[in-house]
Amino acid sequence: MLFGKRKRSIQRILIVEDEPLVAFDNEHFLRDAGFDIVATVDRVEEALRFIDTEGLHLVLADISLSDGSGLDVARAAREHGVPLLFVTGQCPPEARDLALGVLNKPYNHRELVAAIEAVDAKMAGRTIKRPPPGLDLF
Questions:
Q1: How many angstroms separate the CA atoms of 27 and 40, rounded?
Q2: Which of 83, 84, 121, 130 suits a disulfide with 59, CB 3.0-4.6 Å?
């Protein structure tokens, strides 16, 4: 590609986050960065409804949710073939089998976009040039 950015394969994102300020902030920032935010939810039950729909490219999920665990969201995403990246302060070992990786909190907007771009590169089989601090891909 000459003088341009590669088109992202990740466009449609579901945010699963129970901290209202973090959820609101991520949703608006990612929209401004050109992503299509399908929904922002704070409960496992709501997340499962969206995962069951067509066209999701990525789920960003916290581990601790108001009605359960992001691990349940990750299991459902895996069953539906939807990649998931945990965005959390504490990632349990069993998450490694359910997700593409984890972006550890706290993170800033630039690190969040860089993490999504790294996941996009990994899914496409490309080399990840500069992963952001706090990103651990499994």
A1: 7
A2: 84
Which CA distances in Å does 60 have to 57, 105, 108? 10, 12, 15
Residue 114, helix vs strand vs coil: helix
What is the pTM for the complete model shown? 0.92
Q: SS3 for 10?
A: coil
**Sequence-ordered alpha helix ranges (H) in the chain:** 20-32, 44-51, 70-79, 109-124
Give the DSSP letter of residue 94: G
Which domains are assigned to the chain?
A: 12-137 (3.40.50.2300)
Q: What is Dmax (Cα atoms) for the chain?
A: 47
Q: Report the 10 Å Cβ neighbour count for 100.
A: 19
Q: What is the rounded distance in angstroms from the CA atom of residue 80 to the CA atom of residue 7?
A: 24
pLDDT tens column, 83-110? 999 999 988 999 999 999 999 999 999 9
